[in-house]
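Need residues for this backbone.
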């Protein structure tokens, strides 16, 4: 059994989207992270699932997995028939792992630096937001999705973050990024996830 620990309108939306893309059965447990939704504090035993008490976390048959790229990799390996993550032996496996790791190791920290107007420190191990933006532009002007013609979980994890940063105006809506986000918007599973996210918030 799969249980997603989720908070509406948060980073865990991308795992909701991935589960909808995979079309597999799953449960959700609401975690109150915003403090203003009347759901009360996060239960103290949630620390056994996510040591920082953040979302998303996934529990599969009693075993917890946390950190969005790890959950995405776990799910696409668990459900290879979904075709959303190249498997070991596929030439795209390397790029797949690279962009998943890049999403939280480079992209997010660079964008947070930009959002908070923090001067970029190269010693920290990621690139500046300007450089990241150039890299992503070069990739996405050459191909429709991060791995080429094939939509994958990278487009949910990294693409979903890019989309969010554009909504927050941290990344500009250039023609390349605008067209990419439009392609993401064509995914029916994204709309199902949005619906479920809204339903969870109202319940
Ligand atoms: N690196 C984590 C980040 C998780 C994260 O920061 N989640 C936020 C929600 S957007 C959270 O749970 N915040 C609640 C808190 O920090 O108390 C991942 O990518 O999964």
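Answer:
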């Amino acid at each position: 059994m799969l249980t997603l620990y989720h908070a509406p309108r948060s980073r865990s939306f991308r795992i909701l989207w991935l589960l909808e893309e995979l079309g597999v059965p799953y449960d959700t447990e609401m975690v109150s992270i915003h403090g203003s939704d009347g759901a009360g504090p996060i239960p103290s035993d949630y620390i056994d699932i996510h040591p920082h008490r953040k979302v998303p976390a996934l529990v599969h048959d009693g075993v917890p997995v946390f950190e969005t790229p790890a959950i995405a990799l776990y799910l696409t390996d668990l459900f290879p028939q979904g075709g959303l993550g190249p498997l070991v032996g596929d030439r795209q496996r390397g790029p797949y792992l690279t962009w998943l790791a890049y999403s939280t190791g480079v992209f997010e920290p660079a964008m947070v630096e930009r959002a908070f107007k923090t001067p970029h420190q190269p010693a920290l191990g990621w690139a500046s937001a300007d450089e990241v933006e150039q890299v992503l532009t070069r990739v996405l002007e050459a191909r429709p999705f991060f791995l080429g013609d094939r939509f994958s979980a990278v487009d949910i994890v990294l693409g979903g973050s890019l989309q969010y940063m554009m909504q927050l105006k941290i990344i500009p809506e250039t023609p390349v990024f605008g067209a990419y986000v439009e392609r993401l918007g064509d995914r029916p599973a994204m709309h199902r996830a949005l619906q479920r996210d809204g339903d969870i918030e109202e319940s």
